[in-house]
Amino acid sequence: QVQLEESGGGLVQAGGSLRLSCVASGRTFGRYSFGWFRQEPGKERKFVASINKLEDNTQYADYVKGRFTISRDNAVNTVHLQMDSLKPEDTAVYYCAAGTSVHTQILRGARGYMFWGQGTQVTVSS
Hints:
3% of the residues lie in helices and 47% in strands. It is built from 1 helix and 11 strands. The chain is globular. The termini are far apart.
């Protein structure tokens, strides 16, 4: 069992930056790949970025590529999502997720993850 807790969300103006963090409980952090998803009210949860447990692959949704960066620090059981050049359409609740797959296509889908955090709200004003 892994518990995930996100932080770092908030209100920012368009063009600004935020850094989300996801802290995972337990001693098995290195066994998991991690992803970030986001969800707007009334819409499906959408893939944002992932980093696999081998640390040899990161991938991004087209709508954040070049602006967001995912990273992990195994020493402190934390995954980060650095979000730059934020746009109003980035406004959503952002969720951290953990799963055991290393396959890129599986990690792009919500079903590829076993554990989820409670989410953190990101609001970008125009």
